[in-house]
Design goal:
It contains seven helices and no strands. By secondary structure, it is mostly helical.
Amino acid sequence: MWPLGHAAGAYLLASIGAEREWLPQPDAVFVVVVLVASQLPDLVDKPFAWFVPVLPAGRSLGHSLFVILPLCVLAVLLARRLGRTGLGLAVALALCSHLALDVLPVLWGNGTWRYVLWPVLEVEGYDTPPSIVAMFEDSLDAPYFWAEFVLAGLAFVRWRADGWPGLPRAVATVNPSAD
């Protein structure tokens, strides 16, 4: 999945969690933390597999449950210590949503899920770093690629319903039809 889909999926889940009162109401910190956490596995794996080749693939260390689950626990414990346990739960949810969304292509017979158990299970490495343009072009005929835009649309609607958390108040409250 591309960054847009991860961000949208994580925000949707976190917003629904807030509506159900499992998580705090979204504010600027909440939105930024959820969006960063939704990208974290790729921010770890892609550079260290593609540009500084110390990882075998763009989905390995940062996508492994052996890393994600301890990070989730650490996020909750740290947030609890700071008096924001719900924010830690939102981070954990965003990290787990990244993995879940990356596994979706398996439902269409594409990709693999082996990276979630790396290093116990091997992942296919690269001879040369993949081209982002080529990856994008390969994605264009995949249903899960287009599903990202549906997720993004739903997240946008949800973000608006939440009162545009994360935007400066002056921008969020502008209502041109209020004349």
